[in-house]
Design goal:
The complex is a heterodimer of chains A (about 325) and B (about 325).
Chain A: H1 3-17, E1 21-25, H2 41-49, E2 50-52, H3 57-69, E3 73-77, H4 88-95, H5 98-101, E4 111-116, H6 131-135, E5 141-144, H7 148-160, E6 165-170, E7 192-195, E8 200-204, H8 208-223, E9 227-231, E10 234-236, H9 240-250, E11 253-260, H10 265-277, E12 286-290, H11 299-304, H12 309-322
Parallel strand pairs in A: 1-2, 1-3, 3-4, 4-6, 5-6, 8-9, 8-11, 11-12
Antiparallel strand pairs in A: 5-10, 7-9
Helix pairs in contact in A: 1-7, 3-4, 8-12, 9-10
Chain B: H1 3-28, H2 43-52, E1 57-60, H3 65-71, H4 75-82, E2 100-101, E3 106-109, H5 117-129, E4 136-141, H6 148-159, E5 164-170, E6 173-174, E7 177-178, H7 179-182, E8 198-202, H8 206-221, E9 227-232, H9 250-257, H10 261-271, H11 277-300, H12 316-321
Helix pairs in contact in B: 1-2, 1-3, 1-10, 1-11, 2-3, 2-8, 4-11, 5-6
Classes of the chains: A alpha/beta (about 325), B alpha/beta (about 325).
The complex binds thiamine diphosphate and magnesium ion.
Thiamine diphosphate (TPP) sits at the interface of chains B and A.
């Protein structure tokens, strides 16, 4: 199943089962979505429930909050994570806080989908990963779908949740053909053990999952070890249980993320591990992240600005040798 | 309009058109990547506006190759930027959407829709208190005219009587969204009418664009405040190379193609005896040569070295203190 089809199916099935669900965003209707996620939905559900908006991100999210207050369950699409900054006030000051500020009286069931990450030479204003901004906000739930199974079940759950959810997607994943697994008792907040191993835990999420997977065989071969790999799925809340169980077993941890290293989301994960699992560790943790630069257009510079399978492999092998592996 | 000016219009529009066609071809050959937004069909806006607004600051969105060339940017360094080469106007770091050259008072190349409008307002404020005669020109699309930043900008510019021309290219579509679906009317000058003089003009006619921008320039230079121009135009291509533009009817396309800015200027100039027919062949040949040179320059130029990755994040002084 294509990743984007998994998302489309999730929305379609939810809309079919609940009339209060609407979607809104730029080009989501007649055009079918700029990454074709909402393809076919306009024809099926009509303009009342599949709403083409103007280019006005603040209003897309603000309107969605109002709809949610009135009893609808909106799914807002922001075309690219970068543009969500225009809606930041509505997301952070309004959606995330209404429940708390009202002493629990207000409920905002709202899903905000947004693709991000480095695609291919889209340059600095179209290539960011801002999960670290959203994951820092109490009141938001932040999910990151790296695969068709999580995209499908995760999005369905997000739509059904009664709190605002930031649902992160990655632009390079949409056309990817992926395995789809039926899941019973799906838990959106549970990290996935992508691969079991005993000597080293690599934690990652979103598109880096695939870069890490590509790097793992060489790491295992060169260091003669077995790697355990975790895909976080949920960034807020963070599944520390799964992380702890793994790190206590392997005693070594590496985090791979695409966003900038300074203040990146990985910094939070590593900080929690340092606080809670310090005495389980046999080596200092390693972060492999994007460089601290705006994303450049030129392809070689662009690749130099983010982790790639080669770089991930080399860095981990180097680090492993220095740290007793 | 005197003939020298018409020749210049023709040459620049043709250069713009051929530049865009060449860029499209180079994109398909894999020499250009990312989002490439072509200006084909809209050349009269870019050229007419920059010919009239020849002094002052220019702020633009991402569909800006022809605007940059019409402002005086060398097609070579524009093409090299599209190729991502270090000789490009932004050293290959910005690409198609981010052409900047302060020496030409040309400030992007902004790809956040309407994001450049408040910036243009601020620049106009500065020009006003600096006592500069030349004001500011900001170009944007119909889609941008729905953004909050647009409404804030017309309000502030009018409240403070700033020397700023708002130039809205109404090509009726923001990617696949027709303006009439998301705006109560398609004639967008209505949005600004209560704030400033606002006109709707034929954006397929370079002379009409030139005339309107000249008038607007005089108005802002006289300290009367901002001015709004809506130019009706059409893009013949998709929104970018990742869009086939097929949501528009053949019929609509044909109507606008019959108003083609380049063909019509040529026909008109010959019929009126303003420009000798031979001029056009010469101009076309010159254009071909400039384009070939631009592509050769871009192709032969080196890639930026990897040491460029951390260059330009901060100024030199700051780079010394920020690791
Ligand atoms: C804030 C923001 N939202 C969305 C986008 C995605 N986007 C890029 S161009 C565009 C359409 C703009 O249309 P218009 O203003 O009419 O200009 P045109 O492309 O037609 O010249 C959209 C939605 C963006 N770049 N920035
Ligand atoms: Mg438009």
């Amino acid at each position: 199943m294509l990743y984007r089809e998994a998302l489309n199916r999730a929305i379609d099935e939810m809309m079919a089962s609940d009339e209060s669900i609407v979607i809104l965003g730029e080009d989501v209707g007649r055009y079918g979505g700029s990454y074709r996620v909402s393809e076919g939905l306009f024809a099926k559900y009509g303009p009342k429930r599949v709403i083409d908006t103007p280019i006005a991100e603040l209003s897309i999210v603000g309107n969605a909050i109002g709809m949610a207050i009135a009893g609808l369950r909106p799914i807002a699409e922001i075309m690219t994570v970068n543009f969500s900054l225009l809606a930041m006030d509505q997301i952070v000051n309004h959606a995330a806080k209404f429940r708390y500020m009202s002493g629990g009286k207000m409920t905002i069931p709202l899903t905000i989908r947004m693709p991000g990450g480095v695609s291919r030479q889209l340059a600095a204003q179209h290539s960011e990963s801002y999960e670290t901004l959203y994951a820092a906000i109490p009141g938001l739930i932040v999910l990151a779908a790296s695969n068709a199974t999580y995209a499908y079940y995760g999005l369905k759950t997000a739509i059904a949740l009664n709190d605002p959810v930031i649902f992160l997607e990655h632009e390079l994943l949409y056309p990817m053909e992926m395995d789809f697994k039926e899941v019973k008792n799906f838990d959106p907040f549970k990290a996935e053990i992508v691969k079991e191993g005993k000597d080293l835990t690599i934690i990652t999420y979103l598109k880096m999952r695939y870069d890490v997977l590509e790097a793992v065989p060489k790491i295992e071969e060169e260091l003669g070890i077995s790697v355990e790999m975790i895909d976080l799925n949920s960034l807020r809340p963070l599944d520390m249980q799964t992380i702890a169980a793994s790190v206590q077993k392997t005693k070594r941890v590496v985090l791979v993320e695409e966003d900038h290293k300074t203040g990146g989301y990985g910094a939070e994960v590593i900080a929690k591990i340092s606080e809670e699992l310090f005495y389980s560790l046999d080596a200092p943790p390693l972060r492999i992240a994007g460089e601290d630069v705006p994303i450049p257009y030129n392809r070689s510079l662009e690749l130099a600005s983010i982790p790639t399978p080669d770089k991930i492999g080399q860095r981990i092998i180097q680090w492993g040798r220095k740290n007793g592996l | 309009m005197h003939s020298g000016r018409i020749e210049k219009f023709y040459y620049l529009m043709k250069l713009g058109r051929e530049f865009e066609l060449a860029a499209k071809e180079q994109y398909m050959q894999g020499n250009i990547a990312g989002f490439l937004h072509l200006d084909i069909g809209q050349e009269a806006c870019s050229v007419g506006a920059m010919q009239a607004f020849d002094k002052g600051d220019v702020f633009t969105h991402y569909r800006e190759h022809v605007l940059a060339i019409a402002r005086g940017m060398d097609p070579k360094i524009v093409m090299a930027e599209l190729f991502g080469k270090v000789t490009g106007v932004s050293k290959g770091k910005g690409g198609s959407m981010h052409l900047f050259d302060p020496d030409l008072d040309f400030y992007g190349g902004d790809a956040i829709v309407a994001g450049h409008l408040p910036i243009a307002v601020g620049c106009a404020y500065a020009r006003k208190i600096q006592g500069e005669k030349a004001g500011v020109f900001a170009i944007f699309g119909d889609g941008a005219s729905n953004a909050g930043a647009f409404f804030e900008s017309i309000n502030i510019a009018a409240a403070w009587k700033l020397p700023l021309i708002f130039f809205c290219e109404n090509n009726y579509y923001a990617i696949g969204t027709r303006i009439g679906w998301v705006s109560p009317f398609e004639e967008l000058y209505h949005k600004a009418r209560n704030y400033m003089p606002a006109k709707r003009i034929d954006g397929m006619d370079v002379c009409a664009v030139y005339k309107a921008v000249t008038e607007a320039k005089e108005y802002i230079e006289n300290g009367l405040g901002p001015y709004f121009i809506e130019a009706e135009t059409y893009r013949y291509e998709g929104h970018s190379m990742s869009d086939n533009g097929k949501y528009r009817s053949e019929e609509e396309m044909e109507i606008f193609k019959s108003r083609d800015p380049i063909e019509n200027l040529k026909k008109h100039a010959i019929a009126e005896g303003l420009v000798a027919p031979e001029y056009f062949d010469e101009a076309d040949k010159k254009v071909q040569k400039v384009i070939e040179e631009a592509i050769a320059f871009a192709a032969d130029s080196p890639e930026p070295p990897l040491s460029e990755l951390y260059e330009d994040v901060y100024c030199k002084e700051c780079t010394n203190v920020i690791p």
